[in-house]
Amino acid sequence: MTASVAEIHYFIGDTLSGRSSGVPARTAAAGSGELLVSQRPKWLEAARTRLQTFTHLPQNWDSYGSQPLSWATARHAAQLLSQLGGFGLPAPRLVPTAQGGVQFEWDVGGIQLELELEPGGGMLAVFDDIHQGESWDRELPPRDLAPISEALSRVVSAGRQVLDV
Amino acid sequence: MNFSCMHYAERHVTGASDLPEFECPPVVEVAIGVQFDPLVSLGSRHLALLWERWREESPLWEEQPPLQTVTEWLGLPGQPSLNFSLDLGLLPPLRRAFFFNPDRSELRQVQMDRFVRNWKKTGNPYPRYDDQGSGESLSIGLRSRFRDDLQQFIEFVSEQQVGEVLPNQCEITYVNHVPSTGEFGAENLADVLAPWKGDFSDDFLPFPESVEIATHFVIVDTGGKNIGRLHVSAAPARDQDSGDLITRLTLTARGLPLGKGVDGVLQFLDLGRRHIVKGFASMTTTTMHSKWRRK
After folding, report:
1. 0.95 exceeded by the pTM?
2. Which residues in A lie closer than 8 A to residue B236 (C-beta atoms)?
C-alpha cells in the first residue's frame, strides 16, 4: 500500500455512530468566512452547469442516433472533475459523446489531452505533446488515472506556464 | 469507558486465518454498503413496498437526506476532496430510507443509488463479519446479513421493474472508540496511534489541545492493479452514551467491485475488511494491542 494525504470523504456519511454516539468534541474554526485562497478552482461551477445540460439533451441530439449523458456517468464525471480540480488542472472543455458519455479536453501550451468517460464506466485517453513529439492513445482501467498521471501533471505544468506568461 | 470483549477477526472465514485477532477490540459500529448506478424510477412508493418486506425485522422507518455519490478515483495521489455533485432531476431527490430494528442496533439504508447495512454496539454481542458455528449454534455474521439483504433488494428492484442494480463502488467501515485519558485526547494519542509521535521542531507551541489525523492508502490487488483506498481517521470525540472522552478511530475501505453482481461486491468487501483489520493493527500501538488482548 502507498500512503497519500488528503481529506477523507465519506461514502456512508453519517453512520449510526455518527448519529448517536461519538460526537466530535471540537469543530474546526471557521471564523474567517470565505477564504481568498481556495482549493476549489473557479471553473468548477461552470463545468458543473455544463455537465448538467448534457443530461437534458434530447435523444438523437446530433441527428446520428446519439444518447444524452446518462445520470450515472454524469455523477462520476462530476466527482472526477472535482478530483482533477484539486489536482490543479486548468479548465477542461467538456464535450458530450454520441454514446451518452462525456469527454474532457485540454489544449494548453502545446499539450493536448482528451479523456473520455464512457457510459459503461470505461475510459479512453488521447495525448499529444507537440514539443516532445509524443503521441499516444490508451484505454484506462476503471476509475484509475494512474496510467495518465504523468500526462495530467504535464497539463498542470503547461497551464501554470501559460498563467506565468 | 466500559466495553465488553468481542472478537474482531475470525479464524475460519473467507481465507482470513492470518488476520490479527483481539479479544477486546474497541469496535462500536460496522457499516457495509454498495453504491450502484442511479435507479431513476425508484420512488417513495417502492420504498414503502420494500419496507413491508423488512418490516418485521426493521419496524422503525425514518427518512434522511440522500448521500452524495462518492467514487474513488485512483492514480492522483494527495489531491483534496472537493464537495461537488450534480442535481440531475426535475423532482427533489428521493430521500434515504432508514429501516431500524427495534433496539436500533441494526440499520438498513436505501436510496436511489445506495444500499448500506449497519450494525451498532448497544450491549449486544458483536455478530462478527463471518458466520460462526454450525447447525443450531449457527450465528449469522454481518457479511451474510448484508449479502442476503442485497440479494433481496436486487430481486425487489427487478420485480418492480425500476431498473437494474449495477454496483460501481463498495464500502466497509469499522468505527472504534478508544478511551482518552487527557482532555480531548491529544495527551494519549501517541499511546494509541503508532504513527503519531507528537514531536515539534522547537518549544514554541504547547502540547496540542486536540489532534485529528487522516491517512489514506491505495489498495492494490495481487496483480498490482489499483482497486480502492483504505481511509483511516482519528479524531477526538465524546461518547454520547457514557459522556466519556474518546478517540474515534474510523477505518473505511472503498473501491471497485471485483466482478459482476453480488459476488463481485462481496469480493471487494472481503478484501477491504482484510485491509481494515490488518490496518487497524498497523495503525495502533502494541501497548493498545495488549489492552485489547491481541492473540
Report:
1. no
2. 24-26
